[in-house]
Amino acid sequence: MARRVHQPLENQEFDFILGMTGGPVLAYFIGTWPKALEACRAMDALVAEAAEEYGTRLTAVRTDMTRCPEPTRRFGVAGAPTVVLVKDGEAVASRAGAMSRAELREFLDAHL
């Protein structure tokens, strides 16, 4: 995982990252159960690429749904992988399920 992708270990750390970020945040929610694991691993590389590509225009946060249950509930995440674009602490767009590189870019470009 690229260094540009934050990986909070608890609810408070997730909220701290959101509070310290001045721009949009791509909150990428992952699951560690067997059915979600493969899709989430595939998305890891895409999110890391997007974090590098969009640079300072975007902060990426890889969020384990088990370790950070409060943000998972707050943003209505029901499955993994799910991406939520957050601006000023509010979700402005979300999409559940694995995506291709082109689909992730299209999602980001439509909402940034």
Task: Explain what the structure shows.
The protein is globular and about 35 Å long. The protein has 112 residues and is α/β, with parallel strands linked by helices. A 5-stranded mixed sheet has the order 1-3-2-4-5, with helices on both faces. The two termini are 23 Å apart. It has 4 helices and 5 strands; from the N terminus they run βαβαβαββα.
Short description:
This protein has 112 residues and is α/β, with parallel strands linked by helices.
Keywords:
five-stranded mixed sheet; 4 helices; globular; alpha/beta; 112 residues; single chain
Number of helices: 4
Distance between the termini: 23 Å
Radius of gyration: 12 Å
N-to-C series of helices and strands: EHEHEHEEH
Spans of at least 5 consecutive residues with low confidence: none
Shape: globular
Strand order of the largest sheet: 1-3-2-4-5
Percent of sequence in beta strands? 15-25%
Structural class: alpha/beta
Count of DSSP strands: 5
Q: Largest sheet at a glance?
A: 5 strands, mixed
Q: Kindly state the percentage of residues in helix.
A: 40-55%
Can you give the mean pLDDT?
Answer: 93
